Amino acid sequence: MNKFPDNSDIQHYGIGALANIANNEKNQIEIANLKGIEIIINSMNRFSENEDIQYVSCGALMNIASSNKENRVKIRELNGIESIIKTMNKFSENPEIQNRGNGALRYLSFNNENKVEIGKLNGIEIIINSMKNFPKKQNIQENGIGALKNLSLDEENKIKIKELNGIELIQETINNWKKNKEIQNWGLKALQIIN
C-alpha cells in the first residue's frame, strides 16, 4: 500500500483487508505499529471522491478504534475524526458509510478529547442527520445512539444535542426500536445524562 499510494484499487482492497483483520486488539496494535492508521487516513484524503475507499476506510477506523485506547488517540492526532466526518457529510445518502462512520465516532468518543473534537467538527449534527435519514436502518440507529450517549458526557456536546433536537430523536429512536436492547440501554442513558 505504501509502494502504490496513487493506485485506488490497491488502496481499496488493502484497507478492506485491514478492516477485516482489525477484529481483535492484537491486530489493532500491529496495524497501528505498522503505520496502518496513517495509510488509511492518507487514502481517505487522497481519494476523497472514491466512495468505495471511503466506505472501507470508515469501517477500518471503526474496527481499529473499537477496543484500543491508544488507537483512538492516534486517529484524532492524525485528523482521522475530521476525515470521517467529511466522508459522512459528502456521502450522506450511503447507508453503509453512515453506519461505519457512526460506529467509528461511537468508539472514538470513548476518549474525552475526542468527544470535544467531534463536537467542534459538527460531528453531532452529522450523526443526528444520519439517524434521521435512515430511521429504519438498525445499525445506523445503534451506532448513532451509542455515539450520542458517549458525546453527551461532555457539557458543550450536551448543549448541542439539545439545540439540534437530539432529545426528541433519541426518544423517537427508543420508541421505534423497543426490542433492541442496545438502543434501549444507550438511549435511556443518554436521556439521563442530557436531562
TrEMBL record:
The keyword Repeat applies. Keywords: Repeat. InterPro entries: ARM-like (IPR011989), ARM-type_fold (IPR016024), ARM_LRRK2 (IPR056597), Armadillo (IPR000225). ARM repeats lie at residues 79-123, 122-166. Residues 38-192 form the LRRK2 ARM repeat domain. It comes from the Eukaryota. Gene3D superfamilies: Leucine-rich Repeat Variant. This is Aardvark.
